[in-house]
Amino acid sequence: MSSASAVDSDSAPIAYPVARGISWPLMVGVTAFLIPVLAGWGLRDPDTYWHIAAGRWMLAHGAVLTHDPFSFTRRGAPWIAHEWGAELLIALVFRLAGWAGLVFLAAACFAGTLAYLLRFLLARMEPLHALVLTVLAGNMMFPSLLVRPHALVWPLTALWMGVLVGAGERRRAPPWWLLGVMLLWANMHASYILGLAVAPVLALEAMAGAGARRAAVGRGWLAFIVAALGCAIVNPQGFRLLTFPFRVLDMSALDYIAEWRPPNLQHLQILSVWLALVLGLAFIGRIRLPLARNVLVMGLLFMALQHVRNVALLGLLAPFLLARPVATAWRRLAASGRDAAGLDRCLRALTPPAPRATALAAIALAAVSGAVALRIERPHPPAAVAPRAALDALLARGAGGRILNDYGFGGYLIFRGVPVFVDGRADLYGDAFLTRTVDALSLSPGGHLRALLRRYRISGILLRSGWPAVKLLNRMPAWQRVYADSVAVAYVPREQDKTT
Question: In the 8-state DSSP scheme, what is residue 336?
């Protein structure tokens, strides 16, 4: 047997009978769908409430929100729902299937994204490496798997990145149908700006390897990028949407919001594992990235180290950039006789795409199983984001007009139709307002709780029990505590309490 035929024989997948009709992407996709569905995962964020309310408002009025209808502190102020597409989807699913439907939707987006990522990786690298990168990506994304627009656009984000990287590797311009992805993305979540940012960098990589066709490839990419920019401004804000992500990132008050803080690397977490693995391979020379991809990976890493919410993007997008370089380095290693050929051949048995009938049957079975499980469990948001009893206590005493509420409770109040003091729309309230509120509730030297209560003529207070202001309110004779549990504390003015 010649050496060439020996290599072909070693690399051929083993045809196990049990593997017929099954593929790794199908298995990973079904697993990634069932895990959050069976756990009722995705409803622990208060912003889901106001996204539902915004979608409801737009469905009822047949228009995109352009002014705030939910707060008493900013009521009527200009505010355009830049995530209006995702909010309409969330509101429609909630109307049709309730909380279970929203869990189902988020899980489906998560599963489809990981299945696509794994199929992309399997076309470029050994199955074991593709599975490792996909599992890492899933674990980095899972904490951010919430019923919010950023999770609903994960399939669009993956598709955009995969097609762009694939086009660059073939030294071609991206296909024009991909512009539809940008049009949807820009009207669902502000992370679309990342899609616009990576395109020119990948264009340079494609041109660098195109040789004599460099000019033609460059013209194709330039036309695509200009068209993508045109699609991105087809939204209710127009050109202003291009600057919106940067205006938000420039807000200093984001430091008060947990998802906008840096990840705490003092404790072991999945980002630490990712860093150790990637940097370790780089240090021993197993990963050598082209300049363009190095810029993109370092940019994604920088974003992840700045804000914990970006860890998911690093996990999702970095594998698209690492796949080809990792595969190239492994082939060199395998040529020296150190390849785990037997294990690779076993794993390759599940590499080919599953037949369409098998895939549809598996997806249908997973969907039915998930629907049944959700109907039995009936998931709903936890009390930590839905202080139902505390709010009921305030409303029973007529304090529903001007409640000073915790930032994390704003979404629930909006959902209940109660005007809010503040909620998760940080861009609406601005730095000065958020800083003044946090300083007052934390009793900072520059904070003035009493002045805040007088300025906004507060008729009730609903806070998390951990705020320093709670201890002061317990001692203030003008305020009476009417409810308290491990999550929330509620107060009304003493003269307003009709029960005493």
Answer: I
Q: What is the pLDDT of residues 434-486, one digit of tens each?
A: 999 999 999 998 779 999 999 999 999 999 999 999 999 999 999 999 999 99
> In 3D, which of 424, 428, 448, 426 has the Cα closest to residue 437?
448
To the nearest 10 degrees (0 to 180), the angle between helices 127-141 and 24-39 is 20
Under 8 Å between Cβ of 296 and 321: yes
Q: In terms of DSSP bridges, do strands 488-493 and 460-464 run parallel, antiparallel, or are they unpaired?
A: antiparallel
Polymer length in residues for the chain: 500
Other beta carbons within 10 angstroms of residue 266's beta carbon come to: 7
Question: Is the Cα dihedral 454, 457, 462, 464 positive or negative?
Answer: negative
d(CA 311, CA 299): 12
Q: pLDDT class for 360, splitting at 50, 70, 90? A: very high
CA nearest to 190, candidates 110, 245, 269: 245
So where are the chain's domains? 388-496
Determine the Cα–Cα distance for residues 402 and 348; give it in Å rounded to an integer: 62
Task: Give the CA diameter of the chain.
Answer: 96
At 70, give phi and psi (nearest 5°). -110, -25
Q: What's the one-letter identity of residue 140?
A: M
Q: Cβ-count burial of 364 within 10 angstroms (0-12 exposed, 13-18 middle, 19+ buried)?
A: exposed
Cα gap 358→361, rounded to integer Å = 5
Structure tokens, 310: 């970006």
- For residue 17, give every residue at least 6 positions away whose Cβ sits within 8 Å of its Cβ, in sequence order, or none: none
C-beta of residue 144 within 8 angstroms of C-beta of residue 309: yes
Cβ atoms of 453 and 427 closer than 8 Å: no
H runs (alpha helix) in 64-191:
84-122, 127-141, 149-152, 154-169, 179-186
| Kind and range of the H or E run holding 24 | helix 24-39
Under DSSP, the state recorded for 257 is S
Distance CA 487, CA 90 (A): 26
Count other Cβ atoms within 10 Å, centred on residue 383: 14
CA contacts within 13 A on the Cβ side of 436: 15
Contact 38, 107 (CB under 8 A): no
| The pLDDT of residue 499 | 41
Helix (H, G, I), strand (E, B) or coil at 492: strand
Cα separation, 342 vs 329, in Å, equals: 19
- For residues 327 and 331, what is the distance between their CA atoms, to the nearest angstrom? 6
Q: In whole numbers, what is the pLDDT of the chain averaged over residues?
A: 91
pLDDT exceeds cutoff 50 at 498:
no
Whole-number Å distance between alpha carbons of 240 and 11: 53
Distance CA 13, CA 417 (A): 59
Instruction: Compute the 3-state secondary structure of the chain and give helix, strand, coil in percent, each to the nearest 5.
Output: 65, 5, 30
Residue linked to tokens 């009304």: 492
